[in-house]
Design goal:
The chain folds into 2 domains: 237 residues, Aspartate Aminotransferase, domain 2 (3-Layer(aba) Sandwich), CATH 3.40.640.10; 135 residues, Aspartate Aminotransferase, domain 1. The protein is 40% helix and 15% strand. The longest helix is centred in the C-terminal third of the chain and has 20 residues. The chain is globular. Bound molecules: pyridoxal-5'-phosphate. Pyridoxal-5'-phosphate binds next to α3.
């Protein structure tokens, strides 16, 4: 089956008793066990609605096993804490999501887990690998600079050294990019973003092979980051329209990126769909479309705060991936906790604006953004 069909049907289970076409929401947190093959409990990630939505995500990512979690960070910490022991080492990506960066730089230090930060270039990753390296964790495209990594090249380095290779696939979604096809072991999502897609859910997911998921699940159930049945159902419902939303968001983002590229009020646009993006060729090879996220740097003459306040119907809000276009200034939001010098070095400055492009009419989006830039000039 193709993605559009899997989004609607994979995992979903009709409600046989009354003939309903949707999966029923099973609210019970206490479940009879005498005639079951396993003991079921919401925190164990094995209740009906948890398994239905995990099965849909596994089908979309091409993975054997998976769990849905109460946030994207619960998914990331389950991977990292489930797989790494004190004295072991991980290679993580420079410029990854600020929350992941904080987890690594604070919790790893506290727990005695070693780490190196890599630019993501294959040669640099090879250099950072040590005899005790057990995990390589990357993102592509990255938040907020939309850098693109060569997934097949990176996965082959990890495989050659028997290192688990994991990726945050939040920006691409399983519709646009399937890292398992390129050799990645584990794929995680902040489901709060595109998977939920309506800015009303906080959830996450990890999928991968059974032997790794067993270790991750064993850790995750002790730490308690499970998702309840109602939210699992909302996520299942949202996933049914994932392909429609993400393809439309990608079309809109490409149009907005092109319009911004042509504006004299914009110094630089970061969008993998533009021919000027340094990894446009790699993105074209490994992604079906280029996604709904972009960022741009306003020129010196534009006050970023005045731009944000000049927007009329586009909200300045934290989070992304919803049906509505949203903007934010990463220095004040997602990367607020990163050290100032580190942000400046990466190019995450106050002039950088991130846009999560929604499903609205593209002409309206462009008019609103260019109009606010004019007002802020
Ligand atoms: C790329 C990326 N990964 C992970 C996360 C963390 O997800 P959550 O906020 O659902 O814990 C975020 C949140 O913004 C994100 O943008």
């Amino acid at each position: 089956m193709k993605k559009g069909t899997l989004s609607v049907h994979a995992g979903s289970t009709r409600e046989r008793y009354l003939g309903g076409v949707n999966s029923p929401i099973v609210t019970s947190s206490a479940i009879e066990y005498l005639d079951d093959t396993e003991v079921r409990y919401p925190r164990y990630f094995n209740t009906f609605n948890q398994q239905v939505v995990a099965a849909k995500l596994c089908a979309l990512e091409g993975a054997a096993d998976g769990i849905v979690t109460s946030s994207g960070m619960a998914a990331i910490s389950s991977i990292m804490m489930g797989l790494l022991h004190p004295g072991e080492h991980a290679v993580v990506l420079e410029g990854m999501y600020g929350g992941t960066y904080s987890l690594v730089t604070t919790e790893f230090r506290r727990l005695g887990i070693e780490f190196s930060i890599s630019s993501g270039e294959p040669d640099d990753i090879k250099e950072k690998i040590r005899p005790n390296t057990r995990l390589l964790f990357v993102e592509s495209p990255t938040n907020p600079l939309l850098s693109i990594l060569d997934l097949a090249a990176i996965a082959s380095i990890a495989r050659a050294k028997d290192i688990v290779c994991a990726i945050d696939n939040t920006f691409a979604t399983p519709i646009l990019q399937n890292p398992v096809e390129h050799g990645f072991d584990l794929v995680m999502h902040s489901g709060t973003k595109y998977l939920g897609g309506h800015s009303d859910l906080c959830c996450g997911a990890v999928v991968g092979p059974v032997h790794l998921m067993e270790r991750i699940r064993a850790h995750a159930l002790m730490h308690g980051g499970s998702l309840n049945a109602q939210e699992c159902y909302l996520l299942e419902r949202s996933l049914k329209t994932l392909e429609l939303r993400v393809l439309r968001q990608s079309e809109n983002a490409l149009q907005l990126a092109s319009a911004l590229e042509g504006s004299h009020r914009v110094a630089q646009v970061h969008y993998p769909g533009l021919a000027a993006h340094p990894r446009h060729d790699v993105a074209t090879r490994q992604m079906k479309a280029f996604g709904g996220m972009l960022s741009f740097r306003v020129t010196d003459g534009i006050d970023p705060d005045a731009f944000l306040r000049a927007l009329d119907w586009i909200p300045c809000a934290v989070s992304l991936g919803g049906v509505e276009t949203m903007v934010c200034q990463p220095v004040a939001t997602s990367h607020q906790r990163m050290q100032h010098e580190e942000r400046e070095r990466l190019g995450i400055t106050p002039k950088l604006i991130r846009v999560s492009v929604g499903i609205e009419n593209p002409e309206d989006i462009i008019e609103e953004v260019l109009g606010a830039l004019d007002s802020a000039a």
